[in-house]
Design brief:
heterodimer; A: Rossmann fold; B: alpha/beta; 5-stranded mixed β-sheet; 4 helices
């Protein structure tokens, strides 16, 4: 069986693509899957930092494409999970250093030996996004409950549909439930109302995320993190498990369940 | 409600495409560079490829003497886009000979648009309607539709999407993007939507935006120009 190649993208920058990719990689490795995460953000590499592997980089994606090393040599093994690898982006080049067909070729080489390949797409709709999209079997769109992020997600969904890579699924990141309750933030219903695609996970705002990213220990490794739990649930859904989503169908139900969840955690 | 004039510039066309009863009628400028004309034609077709696909084409070459190789390439250009060149109209014997060599019908007796015989109208003439494009999907942010006719969308028009039509615009869904009906100045054009909350709505030279307050009852509405402003009214009241 070949790996499933999943591209994580968003259109807008700063919504949490890299955090999501790192955490899904870790969560999937915790489920004993063989995983590669690829940083396709050439020139602005981040995924290595978030995963705590920055100081182990010798070769990168562009070195592979330009034949300076073998694919294996650019794959960095994670400190905790022997079946989790990172292929870092080059820091000194730009998006034009690789092409969509390079990405397809690399992904296909990895397909035989792994279960999941996550590709961290750069922001935007240009070459970098095209590179990240080309090999995808499935696309996850990360957005925040904000009008501008949702607008960009909508644009990206259109491009994914046009590239026949749909239907993409949505990760709603940094949901602040109290703000939704006060009507100050878009609710999951407001977002799906516009985007009309399925939600694969809702990640609550969690102050543990920033220090986790800064220290290279993704929040999924923290058993007490709500965001970490949400990422783990997304990984389980990608793995084919039926993990119920916090109900979106009945609008009251979602809020109640979330607040119950919060009450349980704090109490 | 505010309004302002919108300037229109009708450009001198290399290529004119019209819908006729049995397909498309394409007239090509008799004087301009052939390459410029064919590339313009290709661009114009590609803009609405799904709309034109399958069409039978009558082409009017006017005075131009079109050699066989040029006509062959024109025929191939259309065929690559799923259209078939059926009839060639020309006043040039060279062009007629080229058409005959390619087994195309050459006729000067075809009724061209605007030259349709009015004298023999039957008592109950068949309603011919006016051409338009039908879009069966949601238009997401960044999508733009331009049409010389009407536009019908079965789906939503999301914020950031734009429809510009010389005719009417019908949205069987939620209209939240920008639309411009009667874009060539037709003040009789209308916009209909099941849920009318456009970012911006223009008809001919008038422009309006949706009121900021959230509405409770969503009902099909029609926007049209009355007394020199755009008004939006519920469909039931009509």
């Amino acid at each position: 069986m070949g790996a499933k190649i999943i591209t994580v993208t968003s259109g807008k920058g700063g919504v949490g693509k890299t955090t999501t990719t790192a955490n899904l990689g870790i969560a999937m490795a915790k489920l004993n899957k063989r995983v590669v995460v690829i940083d396709a953000d050439i020139g602005l590499r981040n995924l290595d930092v978030v995963m705590g592997l920055e100081n182990r980089i010798v070769y990168d994606l562009v070195d592979v494409v330009e034949g300076r090393c073998k694919l294996r040599q650019a794959m960095i093994k994670h400190k905790l999970f022997p079946d989790l690898y990172l292929i870092p982006a080059a820091q000194t080049r730009d998006k034009t250093a690789i092409s969509p067909s390079d990405m397809v070729q690399i992904a296909n080489q990895l397909r035989k030996e792994f279960d999941f390949i996550f590709i961290d797409s750069p922001a935007g709709i240009e070459r970098g996004f095209r590179n990240a999209l080309a090999p995808a079997d499935e696309v996850l769109i990360v957005t925040n409950p904000e009008v501008s992020a949702v607008r960009d997600a909508d644009r990206i969904i259109g491009l994914i549909e046009a590239a026949k890579k749909g239907p993409a699924r949505l990760i709603l990141n940094r949901m602040k439930i109290n703000m939704v309750k006060r009507g100050e933030m878009l609710s999951p219903e407001d977002v799906t109302d516009i985007l009309a695609i399925g939600i694969i996970g809702i990640v609550p705002e969690d102050e543990a995320v920033v220090p986790a990213s800064n220290t290279g220990v993704p929040v999924t490794l923290n058993e007490n993190s709500r965001a970490g739990l949400a990422f783990t649930n997304i990984a389980r859904r990608l793995n084919g498990e039926n993990v119920p989503l916090m109900s979106l169908e009945n609008s009251g139900g979602f809020l109640q369940r979330i607040s119950r969840l919060f009450a349980g955690k704090s109490g | 409600m505010l309004f302002c004039g919108v300037p229109y510039a009708m450009q001198d066309e290399l290529v004119a495409i019209k819908g006729i009863k049995d397909g498309l009628f394409i007239s090509l400028s008799p004087s301009e560079e052939w390459l410029a004309i064919t590339s313009e034609l290709a661009t114009r077709i590609d803009e609405k490829s799904s709309f034109y696909a399958g069409a039978n084409v009558t082409v009017d070459l006017g005075q131009r003497a079109v050699p066989k190789y040029q006509l062959t390439s024109l025929k191939a250009l259309l065929e690559r886009r799923d259209m078939s060149l059926n009839i060639v109209l020309s006043d040039s014997q060279t062009s007629i000979d080229s058409a005959n060599a390619l087994d195309l019908r050459t006729s000067t007796a075809i009724a061209t648009p605007g030259r349709e015989p009015n004298e023999t109208l039957p008592i109950d003439p068949e309603e011919e309607g006016t051409p338009g494009v039908m879009i069966r999907r949601t238009l997401r942010s960044g999508r733009t539709i331009h049409s010389k006719g009407h536009v019908v969308v079965y789906g939503d028009v999301n914020p950031g999407a734009e429809i510009i039509a010389n005719g009417d615009i019908f949205i069987w869904g939620r209209l939240r993007g920008t639309v411009h009906a009667g874009a060539n100045g037709d003040e009789n054009a209308i916009v209909c939507a099941l849920d009318m909350t456009p970012s911006q709505l223009r008809i001919a030279g008038y422009i309006t935006i949706s009121p900021p307050e959230k509405r409770r009852n969503i009902t099909p509405e029609i926007a049209l120009i009355r007394d020199q402003q755009i008004i939006v009214e519920a469909w039931q009241k009509r």
